[in-house]
Design brief:
This is Serine/threonine protein kinase. This protein is an all-beta fold. The protein is about 0% helix and about 45% strand. It is built from no helices and 32 strands.
């Protein structure tokens, strides 16, 4: 998709934008006060996006009300979205590869409850349509490549060899925390499993050298973890996304330089972001589209602090990122010729505690409700339509 060209931005003050990254392709939609913008991609590309005025808050469809409740975890990838709400798992959107886990390959424009697992505490989505969730301390995965090579499994399938799982992250690789140790498996072409090799790994394999692991994140070719109060990354490092001051690939965990007591970390295609103990957000790696948010387009081989404070969570996409900070959502980056190089506050949301950047939309938990916005061709916004929206839409959970 192309970024906004002459005459497409309209007039007025820029107030919010939308990230949508599809396997390395990002569309950025910028909300403009008093003006409408249209960003068009090619027909088969995941995105023709239309942005309207961003002066109003999240819109609500007549005759319908958003579901509310406690959200423990949210995730989005490709054209699919999931959420853990009151310990139950709901998924919606694209389902071609069984990504939703409802036993079908039927797209769902509204959340459907996923049966067969209960007491769910976390969910993650990624790769080419794989979803994993933690249920009563056990890990279940489904969708793309969960069965035999090339086989998609549309129902939750227990992962053997792991117990007391507390966190999971899905990319082309899968990483999880079990009993305080990090385990990774599946694609390992760039050493992102962290076992010192680049051969494919079919079963969960402990990442040596890490203990007291509290967070994991894996993307297409790079994995990261927070362990013992420090951040570590490994795998592909050609853009400096490992954060060790080099561009040398690392087959085992390598400490990220210059981060003080990190609490959240998110790896994407060629960049990484983290939240430090102070609530500051730091990003490093590729910055050709302003995805590091430091006001430049200069690549960084070590973490650079950006202008977001009081952050609790950060989520990265291929060419942008968002953070939850001070009750608001902030986003930055672009695949256009006029990138947003610094964080912008998303208009109309308050009480934000969680945010996730998917491949075609962004979602956030604000108060006791969940909102999504961006592309919606498969119903991934969860509002019962397939209409793209530049404004946060309340997700319609079943009663």
């Amino acid at each position: 998709p192309q970024g906004p060209g002459p005459g497409q931005r309209g007039s007025g003050s820029r107030t919010a934008w939308i990230i949508a990254a599809v396997f390395g392709v990002l569309v950025l939609v910028v909300g403009v006060v008093g003006a409408a913008i249209a960003l068009s991609g090619s027909g088969s590309d995941p995105g023709t996006t239309v942005a309207g005025s961003s002066t109003s808050g999240p819109s609500t469809s007549a005759g319908s009300s958003p579901g509310s409740g406690t959200f423990e975890s949210i995730a989005s990838s490709g054209d699919s979205t999931c959420a853990v709400r009151a310990a139950a798992l709901y998924c919606w959107g694209g389902n071609e590869r069984g990504t939703l886990g409802d036993g079908t390959t039927t797209d769902r424009p509204r959340p459907v409850a996923i049966t067969g697992i209960s007491d769910v505490s976390a969910v993650s989505m990624g790769g080419l349509g794989t979803t994993c969730a933690i249920s009563s301390g056990d890990l279940y995965c489904w969708g793309y490549g969960v069965g035999q090579p090339g086989q998609n499994v549309p129902l939750p399938t227990k992962v053997a060899g792991l117990s007391r799982v507390t966190a999971v992250s899905v990319g082309l690789t899968i990483c999880a925390i079990s009993d305080g140790d990090a385990y990774c498996w599946r694609n390992n072409a760039n050493g992102q499993v962290g076992n010192g090799s680049t051969g494919s790994v079919d079963v969960p394999t402990r990442v040596a050298g890490l203990s007291n692991v509290t967070a994991v994140s894996t993307s297409h070719t790079t994995s990261c973890a927070i362990a013992g109060g420090s951040a570590y990354c490994w795998g592909n490092n050609r853009e400096g996304q490992i954060g060790d001051g080099t561009t040398i690939d690392r087959l085992t965990p390598t400490r990220v330089l210059g981060l003080d007591a990190p609490t959240s970390i998110s790896a994407s295609l060629y960049s990484t972001c983290a939240v430090a103990g102070s609530g500051g957000v730091f990003c490093w790696g590729q910055n050709s589209s302003g995805q590091l948010g430091d006001g430049t387009e200069q690549d960084r081989r070590t973490p650079a602090r950006i202008d977001v404070r009081g952050a609790t969570e950060v989520s990265t996409a291929a060419y942008g990122a968002c953070a939850a900070a001070g009750g608001s959502a902030y986003c930055w980056g672009s695949r256009s010729d006029q990138p947003d190089k610094s964080p912008d506050r998303v208009n109309g949301l308050s009480g934000v505690t969680e945010v996730t950047t998917g491949s075609a939309n962004v979602c956030a938990v604000a108060g006791d409700e969940m909102y999504c916005w961006g592309l919606n061709g498969k119903g991934q916004l969860g509002n019962g339509t397939t209409t793209t929206s530049s404004e946060p839409q309340p997700v319609r959970f079943p009663a």
